[in-house]
Amino acid sequence: MHSLYLADRPDLDDDELSMIGEFGFLVASGNTNASTTTAKINTSQELTSWSYQIIGSALYKQSQQEIEGEEEDLASAQRLFLSGQFDHKLTEPDDRLFIYCEYENNRFSGFRYQAALAAGWTSRLWHDKQSEFKYSVGPGYAISEVEKHNTEEDTKGLIVRAAMEFKQKFSSNATFRQFISTEADQEYYKTKSETSLSTKLTGALAMKLSLIMNHDTSVGPDIEELDTEAAVTLVYQFF
Q: How many Cβ atoms from other residues are within 10 Å of residue 228's Cβ?
């Protein structure tokens, strides 16, 4: 899978815009005939009193399946995810109040959609040219539409959302990143984790190894709670 990627820029000056774009395409043939397409865009900006980050990603997988004795190419995975976080900086710029929203449409998860809105406290504990650590925590409200026995059922309620992100540059060519977020109420929790290591090969070209895990305890009884995705990608940094 190959990607186009505009890397994070933690050293941005105020008002400078950072945009991350990624595209991947993988084709498998032989014992398994399938194709997977992924796309992602991540836009962020640090302003004088505000900062924001908007993320959109999509995944589509098509595989060959036998239907009534005939091989057909059918969708086996289809996911759309959108999120936005807006931070208001306090007297100390690294201490902020945030508003976060997200929407996910995962066709094969047992949900028509899942959405959440949260607000609270976020802080960047440290931030320099070599490493960065930030976290956020606050209450929120989640709503989802569940598919059960050919009927649709809404579920909603209060949640607590927490997230953290850690970045470490081992050298001018290698960067490690760990992101974890969780949303929980009294009955379920949903956790997302992304671990990646990027190594510059030459100029703007780099190699990225990543492991993404999504764990949702609210899915139906016939659906796995844990989804994992591992990839080795080529990364291109435009600016």
A: 11
- 149's CB contacts (< 8 A; 6+ apart) are none
Which residue has 């320099």 as its token pair?
A: 128
CA distance 10 to 16: 11
Report DSSP state, residue 203: T
What does each of the 239 residues of the chain score in pLDDT, given as a tens digit?
433 333 344 444 456 778 777 777 777 666 567 788 878 888 888 888 999 999 999 888 888 776 766 777 777 788 899 999 999 999 998 999 999 999 999 877 778 889 999 999 999 998 888 999 999 999 999 998 876 656 567 888 999 999 999 999 998 889 999 999 999 988 888 999 999 998 888 877 777 888 889 998 877 667 788 888 877 777 766 55
Within its chain, how far is the Cα of 43 from the centroid?
Answer: 13
For residue 206, count other CB atoms closer than 10 A to its CB: 21
Helices (H) and strands (E) in the chain, counts: 0, 12
The token pair that represents 175 in the structure block: 């960067």
Q: Say which amino acid occupies 159.
A: I
Helix (H, G, I), strand (E, B) or coil at 143: strand
Provide the Cα torsion 78, 167, 15, 201; round to 10°: -80
| Cα–Cα nearest to 54, from 45, 46, 44 | 44
